[in-house]
Specification:
The protein is built from 6 helices and 5 strands; from the N terminus they run αααβαββαββα. The protein is an alpha+beta fold. A 5-stranded antiparallel sheet has the order 1-5-4-3-2.
Length: 154
Amino acid sequence: MRYFIRSVKYFLYFTLIFVVIIAILVFIGAADADISTMFRGGYSALWKIALLFAVISAIYPSVGFIKKEAVTAGSWEEISDDIKDFMSGRGYVLESEDTGTMTFRKKGVERLTRMYEDRITLTARIGGVDVDGMRKDVVRLAMGLESRFRRREE
């Protein structure tokens, strides 16, 4: 269900960006305000554009979100305070905490730019934690956690 919701969000996001760009082009006079002259094929081109957005939106969540292992030393109880400190230093606030799991959200306006898909979930595992969320954030955070705990060991 989460995958479907993400796909719909991205479709609406791409459509909104498209409408804003077209509106700006019409406003500055770079394009006619008539759809039939704006696109080759007129109104039928809108269906093709919407289909393209739907295909990209259907594929993107499978590429844009991952789960990655971060190797850390110590038990969950020992490292959970360090993880909270690390995440708060990166602009995340603790959303919820259960036994062996913490979820964080970005604070501020950056949540809007990510369409409120900014949740990072950390789950305890033997030898480290699993980091789940948006690909670019997960890779950066997992590497940062590993680096922090490697320095702590030395």
